[in-house]
Amino acid sequence: MATAADSDAMRRAIELAARGLGSTSPNPVVGCVILDASRQPVGAGYHRRAGGPHAEIHALRDAADRARGGTAYVSLEPCNHTGRTGPCAQALIEAGISRVVYAVGDPTPQATGGADSLRAAGVQVEQGLLADEAEAGNIAWLTSVRLGRPYVLWKYAATLDGRIAARDRTSRWITSPESRADVHRLRAEADAVIVGSGTMRADDPHLAVRGIDDAVQPLRVVMDTEGTAVRPGARVLDDAAPTLVAVAEDAETQLPDVVRLPRAGSGLSVTALLDALHQRGIRSVLLEGGPTLAGAFVSAGAVDKVVGYIAPVLLGAGPAALADAGISTISEALRLDLRETVRIGPDLRITAVPATPKER
């Protein structure tokens, strides 16, 4: 049975893992804490960037000789393969770790098996401590592995009566500076940011991360079916971050970096876009487009989390946050499970995920 010290160490490992959000893709975020043989903390680390040392290596370097006979707490099963770095399971064995506690098993075929290697070497291995917390912290990567597509977080900002703009389409600014700064945190944690042609024409958005030191800029993606919304001089074409424009297979365009996708209805296939992004190593996306694009993603069953910034403002008219999502009757409504409500300046940030069948 896990002790309070076990839980504290694992919780610390999960907290450390979160520091890697936005910089480790296509790898997961992982944290590791090491207690010595007398149960004193001697090492800690997290996976900082793709291609760099894994969490276990940082923690072992921190602990040095004090790791021998100790316990390693890892938020994800130690890997068992050699890629750009060596197998962490072997590193733990060579360091003399006597016990490994990990929260979530690694579902990737090439990396799984670390626990078996540890056991074969005589290391005591335990799985499942704070598994729900660890999974929540690594949900984007886990979802991408399990579903073979990027994790999608849809973010929107709206008035209390659900409007994202006034009748004349003006929308700057509905929410507060505090909320807008928080959106940059979401961008910094995502591999890609997606908008549609409507948002491009209305706002000429920049989509790069601002105000966050050392942020890895996400790929800026514009779904521009006809290839006419992204014009020369558009802000997304500057060198602040990479940009990819998705157009229809038969669209005529001179844009330099495009991906051609099949049409779906009046737009592009959401499934094909996510597949193309996944093939490029994109594991998480932030959907920032308007109501039409959001409706297409909801209709495709491709929204994993919703974050709404609700301002204490009333407009009474203007576009709603979500357009046609293929829902024609109340029984088809996409029910959500509320996960968090937080005050952000004068606004309310609401986080929810699609409810499972049991929750519905």
What does this structure look like?
- This protein is of the alpha/beta class.
- It has ten helices and 16 strands.
- The model has no long low-confidence stretch (mean pLDDT 93).
- It has a nine-stranded mixed β-sheet, with helices on both faces. It has a five-stranded mixed β-sheet with strand order 2-1-3-4-5, sandwiched between helices. A two-stranded antiparallel ribbon has the order 11-12.
- Helix 3 (88-94) runs parallel beside helix 4 (114-120).
Distance between the termini: 34 Å
Q: Low-confidence stretches at least 5 residues in length (pLDDT < 50)?
A: none
Helix content: 25-40%
Report Rg.
Answer: 22 Å
Beta-sheet strand percentage?
15-25%
- Average pLDDT works out at 93
Fold blueprint:
Blueprint: H1 4-17, E1 31-35, E2 41-46, H2 55-63, E3 71-76, H3 88-94, E4 99-104, H4 114-120, E5 124-127, H5 131-137, H6 139-147, E6 151-159, H7 177-189, E7 192-196, H8 197-203, E8 219-223, E9 243-248, E10 258-261, E11 263-264, E12 267-268, H9 270-279, E13 284-287, H10 291-299, E14 305-311, E15 336-344, E16 347-354
Parallel strand pairs: 3-4, 4-5, 6-13, 6-14, 7-8, 7-13, 8-9, 9-10
Antiparallel strand pairs: 1-2, 1-3, 11-12, 14-16, 15-16
Helix pairs in contact: 3-4
What is this entry, summarized?
The chain is an alpha/beta fold and 360 residues long. Helix content is 26%, strand content 24%. α3 runs parallel beside α4.
